Amino acid sequence: MSPRLNCKTLRGLPLPTFFGGLFLMGLLFFPGCLRAQHDTLWVKNGNVLYGEIKGLNSGVLKMETPYSDDDFTIDYDEVQRLVLERRCLIILTGGERMFGFLRSKEDGKVTIYSTEGTRDALDLNKVTSIKVIEKDLWSRFSGYIDFGFNLTKSNNQRQLNVDGGISYTGFKWIMNTKVSSLFADQDNVELTQRTSIDAQVNRLVSDKWYILASGSFLSNTEQALQGRYSAKLGVGRFLAITDKLLWGLGTGLNYNIESYDDSSLNKESTELFISSRFNMFDFKDLSLDTNIDFYPSLSERGRVRVDYNLNVKYDLPYDFYIKTSFQFNYDNQPPLTASEFDYILTSGFGWSFN
């Protein structure tokens, strides 16, 4: 994670005229090197930055400059004007998505030049997210990996948890894949294992509505579950999209293929699903992501399942972070030898990339 630039930090930078001089000299003597670095940023204290705006996320704008080894991260509230000449995915307050360029002609305002035509000047704070759509496919992906390990002398208890994920963001398509595994062992107790894999694809059909399709796998020794393969298809709607939070609801059908330790209990089932996700960000270096899914069965009378996930992450320098996670699973009709519910609370250290 790059050092945060706020108003106080910017006052210690060289004078804007010096930056402008470097920029003009670069255009004269190194046009090939600086051809891509044509974005401009004006900050409220009067400084001007030249380079490449990398994007805006969670209220933080990231910019690469030719006169710094590291990218600058700037509080978006401190931005007064900007010019971004490359194609971007732009998300406005309320969830409206546009694809185009950004140029400010006056302080506190920005004009969007999209494929659908020029948009009247908007307040800068109406723009909640900017993602530069690069030509190469790899630049549209982001990901993370983290792990945690606990060792206790009592009963020689050992626990290892590993999590990872990859995401893709395009103009109309959003894809997310994540894997989570936990292994716990101690003397005189059977090995505890839990593995979950989720992959979801969303196709945006309007500013707030989307179609979703996903596949998942769960194995859990606590619930005597060797494997549950699930496939979802449904629709979702964003109820709130701001520069600090995202909240959405989804519903549809879910199909399960389940195998248990007792093979006589293996079965297939169809369920209705109702899900909700809430994501908070732009709270300094802290973020929170939580979701809950209800599964009332359509093929098994009276059966109800619930899955809940909570992740709290604190960012560290150089894209590292520490994270605490809580996962809960409930099934009111488990096998006789299994528990109705299972939960895990883990913490770990990780690294993200984009």
Structural class given helices, strands, pairing? mainly beta
**Strand-residue fraction?**
over 45%
Biggest beta sheet attributes: 12 strands, antiparallel, barrel
Low-confidence stretches: 1-37
- The Rg value, from CA coordinates, equals 24 Å
Average pLDDT level: 83
Number of domain modules: 2
Which sequence of strands runs across the widest sheet?
Answer: 11-12-13-14-15-16-17-18-19-20-21-22
**Strand/helix succession:** EHHHEEEEEEEEEEEEEEEEEEEEE
Terminal-residue CA separation: 11 Å
Could you tell me the CATH topology label of the largest domain.
Answer: Porin
The tally of strands reads 22
By CATH, the architecture of the largest domain is named Beta Barrel
Q: Helical percent range? A: under 10%
Overall body shape: globular
Q: Class of the largest domain in CATH?
A: Mainly Beta
Helix segment tally: 3
Superfamily at the CATH H level of the largest domain?
monomeric porin ompg
Describe the structure.
- There is one protein chain.
- The chain is mainly beta.
- The chain has helices spanning 7-10, 16-29, 31-34; strands at 4-5, 39-43, 48-57, 60-64, 72-75, 79-92, 97-103, 109-114, 117-123, 127-132, 141-152, 157-169, 173-186, 189-204, 209-220, 225-241, 245-260, 267-283, 286-296, 304-315, 320-331, 341-353.
- It has a 12-stranded antiparallel beta barrel with strand order 11-12-13-14-15-16-17-18-19-20-21-22. Strands 1, 2, 3, 4, 5, 6, 7, 8, 9 and 10 form a 10-stranded mixed sheet that branches.
- A hairpin with a 4-residue loop joins strand 6 (79-92) and strand 7 (97-103).
- Mean pLDDT is 83; it is low at 1-37.
